[in-house]
Amino acid sequence: MFTARFSTGYNLFPMSRRSPFTLRISTLLGIAGLGMGLLACPSMVGASDDLHIEITKKGLGKEVVITQGAREWFMLIEVTPENSVVLRQEKEHGTYLVDESETHDRPMTTGEIDAAITDYVNSVKTRATKE
After folding, report:
1. What does the pLDDT look like over 41-57, one tens digit per residue?
2. 3-state secondary structure (DSSP) of residue 125
3. Are strands 95-104 and 84-92 parallel, antiparallel or unpaired?
């Protein structure tokens, strides 16, 4: 006599030779690795009125380039173990309208870098829509 036992649902764990803990850890590490890969790649985000925003990770800091026609806004945050340098530039038709930098006597945290980039992008969006 032959009896077969079938489960009513799909369960990945009995089909794998790995333990459930190992599968969960590998899945989490895979997702984390994908996320880090996406952070390292330049991202292109479009806004209204042909406003193009490109954010790139540069070492421990970040760089953002925003363009709209002949206008360009640029911000670079460079972080070293000793300090941080923030560079902001704005140019129109190749002429620099703004060229300023500031130095902080300590390295900026990732949260501070992200907040500075977000504030800069939002201020440019606001100024670009007013003009």
Report:
1. 454 444 445 899 999 99
2. helix
3. antiparallel
